[in-house]
Design brief:
Layout: E1 5-9, H1 12-23, E2 26-30, E3 35-39, E4 45-49, E5 74-77, H2 81-91, E6 94-95, E7 100-101, E8 105-111, E9 117-123
Helix pairs in contact: 1-2
């Protein structure tokens, strides 16, 4: 099975620049003016240009690119969270929390310019294995 990540955006060029500059992803392919495949993470990320106010599915809610919440979000594991935060902020991310330190690592919550939440994680020690019994 292959995982593909799709992110709706209202401005494809801005999205490509953000994910390139904030997270070091690179454009592998462009699909006309409507999409771009970004690589450099463990799964490809597809940025899909969709107009604000359009529905994602029949009779579904309208797309809103203000800050919104969904139970599905992306976590990007980085080697140095402080450096990654500054890079993401400079690219247009909004930092939404202080860095929290847990037994397994450090985490910070952010939002991209399109209202999509994501986290940066820096693992410490054995990462999530630190919380195993």
């Amino acid at each position: 099975m292959t995982l593909l990540v799709n992110i709706d955006v209202d401005d494809l060029d801005t999205a490509v620049a953000f994910y390139r500059d904030a997270l070091d992803l690179k454009v592998a392919r462009r699909f006309g003016g409507g999409g771009a495949e970004m690589v450099g993470s463990s799964a490809p990320i597809y940025l899909l240009q969709k107009k604000p106010g359009t529905a994602a599915f029949k009779d579904g809610p309208a797309r809103d690119y203000g800050r919104h919440w969904t139970p599905v979000h992306l976590d990007f594991v980085v080697p140095d969270i402080a450096t990654a935060i500054e890079k993401a902020r400079a690219a247009g991310a909004r930092v939404e929390s202080d860095v929290r330190v847990e037994k397994w690592g450090k985490i910070v919550l952010l939002a991209d310019p399109f209202g999509n939440g994501f986290c940066l994680i820096e693992f410490l020690g054995r990462g999530y294995d630190e919380i195993l019994g």
